[in-house]
Write a structure and sequence with these properties.
By secondary structure, the protein is mainly alpha-helical. The chain has 21 helices and 12 strands. It has a 3-stranded parallel sheet, covered by helices on one side. The structure holds glutamic acid. Glutamic acid (GLU) binds at residues 7-9, 41, 188, 202, 206.
Length: 471
C-alpha cells in the first residue's frame, strides 16, 4: 500500500511552498487509495513552538488535508535512542569527541584550501576503550555516522530523475548532538521506515540530505523508499518565494478571505497539470482522480498572486454553492460589525453580488452599503449632489417607492426610466444621485442591485436623511 507523509517543522507559519508539498503528498496517497501521515518534526527544541504547531494543524485542516496518522517527534526519543544504539553496536556510528573549536579549525583549513569541508574522521579510529575513557572524563561528544569512503549513492527521483552523489562530498555526519538530541537526517529515516512510508515527497532543498538518509536506511536494514523532490516555488522576479514577495503563508490568505478550495486548486497548478489539458479549475475529488507525481514538472513554478486572486473570484462566482459561500464569508461580515442576523437577507445579498469581489476582505468593503445605514458623504460628493437635480430625483424616487416594491434590478431600471421621463433629467443624474445618497461612493456594486435588495424602509430613510440636508 502506498503511504506518504508531510513532515513540517513547527518553527514558523505554514508557507505556501510547504502547503503545496503537503497537497502533492496527500493527493498522491489518496490517488493510490493509500495512507497519509502528518508528522510534526519538533526535535529542534529551541525553534519549535506550540503556537506554530497549532497554526499548522489549523491551516492544514482549513485546506482540507486530512491525515490518517499523527506523530510528534519529541515524543519518540526512546525509539531514536534504540536505533542509535543499533548503529553504534554494528559499527555504523561512533562517538566523536572533537570540540567545536577543533571542528571550526578544520573548516577554516578547508576554506583556505578552497575545498568543500568534510569531517577529518579523527575520532573514527578511537578504540571502544579510548572512547569509554573520554566519556568517563565527562568529555562531551556527538555521534557520527560512518560514511563508506568513495561510495557513489544513486537514486531515481520520481520528479528530478537520476541523481548521483558521492559520499566523499559530505563525509561522516552527526546523528546525535552533544546535548543528546538526534538530528533530522537520522530521525527522518527511523520514522519513515517505522511508519511504513513508501514515497517521500518533499522540497528539492532536501536532495543533498537524501544520500545520507539512504546510507542510514541500508545500515539499519530498512527498505529504501521512493523519493519525489519538488522544485522550488519562485516569485515573479524569479527568486525563491519569500516574505519579500508579500504574503507567503497560508494564514495570510485565510485571513485575507480566500477560499481554501481555491487556494488548494491554485497550489496544485504550481508545477503540476494533467497531461494534455490546459484546464485549470478542479475539485479536490477530481484532483485526487487525476494527480500523479510523474506529471509534476521538474522546473521551478512561479507564484502569481493575481492569478490566485482571479481563481478565488472564479470560485466565489461560479464554483461554490451559495450555502458554502455564506458559511465561509460570514465570519468576515461579522467581524466587520455588520448585522447578519437575517440569514435570508444575507444570502440574498450574496447571491446577487458574488460577481463583485475576488476575496472576502474586498467583499466586506463592497458590501458595506447592504449592511450599514450611516452613510458618510464626502464634501466633494455633496457638491456633486448639489450641482445635479438630485433633490428632485431623490424626492420623486422616495415618493414612488411608497406604493411599489423593487424586487429585481429590472424593476429599479424601469422606475429610473419613469423618473427620467417625468423630470426630463439625464440618466447619469439619476444614477449618480442614488449612488451617492445610498452609498456615499461613486463606485461599487450595481446600484440597481442594492436598491432591489435593501429593504424598502431603509432605502427611504437613507434618502430622507439626504433630502433633509439638501433641502
Ligand atoms: N521537517 C523537514 C522540513 O520541514 C521535513 C523534511 C522531509 O520531508 O523529510 O523541511
Amino acid at each position: 500500500m502506498v503511504k506518504t507523509r508531510f513532515a513540517p517543522s513547527p518553527t514558523g507559519y505554514l508557507h505556501l511552498g510547504n502547503a503545496r508539498t503537503a497537497i502533492f503528498s496527500y493527493l498522491f496517497a489518496r490517488h493510490n487509495r493509500g495512507g497519509f501521515v502528518l508528522r510534526v518534526e519538533d526535535t529542534d527544541r529551541e525553534r519549535s513552538k506550540k503556537e506554530f504547531e497549532e497554526m499548522l494543524l489549523k491551516d492544514l485542516e482549513w485546506l482540507g488535508i486530512e491525515w490518517d496518522e499523527f506523530y510528534r517527534q519529541s515524543e519518540r526519543f526512546d525509539i531514536y535512542r534504540e536505533y542509535v544504539n543499533k548503529l553504534l553496536e554494528s559499527g555504523h556510528a561512533y562517538p566523536c569527541f572533537c570540540t567545536p573549536e577543533e571542528l571550526e579549525k578544520e573548516r577554516e583549513e578547508a576554506q583556505r584550501k578552497g575545498i568543500a569541508y568534510r569531517y577529518s574522521g579523527k575520532c573514527r579510529v578511537l578504540t571502544p576503550e579510548e572512547a569509554e575513557k573520554l566519556k568517563k572524563e565527562g568529555k562531551p561528544f556527538t555521534i557520527r555516522f560512518r560514511v563508506p569512503d568513495g561510495e557513489e549513492i544513486v537514486f531515481e527521483d520520481l520528479v528530478k530523475g537520476h541523481i548521483s552523489i558521492n559520499a566523499d562530498d559530505f563525509g561522516d555526519f552527526v546523528i546525535v548532538r552533544s546535548d543528546g538530541s538526534p538530528t533530522y537526517n537520522f530521525v527522518v529515516v527511523v520514522d519513515d521506515a517505522l511508519m511504513g512510508i513508501t514515497h517521500v515527497v518533499r522540497g528539492e532543498d532536501h536532495i543533498p540530505n537524501t544520500p545520507k538518509q539512504i546510507l542510514i536506511y541500508r545500515a539499519l536494514g530498512f527498505e529504501v523508499p521512493k523519493f519525489a523532490h519538488l522544485p522550488v516555488i519562485l516569485g515573479e522576479d524569479r527568486s525563491k518565494l519569500s516574505k519579500r514577495h508579500g504574503a507567503v503563508s497560508v494564514m495570510n490568505y485565510r485571513e485575507e478571505g480566500f477560499l481554501p478550495e481555491a487556494l488548494f486548486n491554485y497550489l496544485c497548478l504550481l508545477g503540476w497539470s494533467p497531461p494534455g489539458s490546459d484546464r485549470e479549475i478542479f475539485s479536490k475529488e477530481e484532483l485526487i482522480e487525476l494527480f500523479d507525481l510523474k506529471d509534476v514538472n521538474s522546473a521551478p513554478a512561479v507564484f502569481n498572486r493575481e492569478k490566485l486572486r482571479w481563481m478565488n473570484g472564479v470560485y466565489i462566482r461560479d464554483v461554490v454553492s451559495l450555502e458554502r459561500l455564506y458559511e465561509a464569508i460570514l465570519p468576515f461580515l461579522e467581524s466587520a460589525g455588520y448585522d447578519v442576523s437575517d440569514e435570508e437577507y444575507v444570502k440574498k445579498v450574496l447571491e446577487r453580488t458574488r460577481d463583485a469581489y475576488d476575496t472576502f476582505t474586498e467583499a466586506v468593503e463592497k458590501l458595506r452599503p447592504f449592511f450599514v445605514d450611516e452613510i458618510e458623504i464626502e464634501p466633494d460628493l455633496w457638491s456633486r449632489l448639489e450641482d445635479m437635480r438630485s433633490y428632485e430625483v431623490l424626492s420623486a424616487f422616495a415618493e414612488k417607492l411608497k406604493d411599489r416594491d423593487l424586487e429585481t434590478p429590472e424593476d429599479v431600471k424601469k422606475l429610473a426610466k419613469e423618473i427620467q421621463k417625468e423630470l426630463g433629467v439625464k440618466p447619469k443624474e439619476i444614477w449618480h444621485s442614488l449612488r451617492i445618497a445610498l452609498t456615499g461612493q461613486l463606485e461599487g456594486v450595481g446600484i440597481d442591485v442594492l436598491l432591489s435588495t435593501l429593504p424598502k424602509e431603509r432605502v427611504i430613510s437613507r434618502i430622507g436623511r439626504v433630502l433633509e440636508k439638501l433641502g
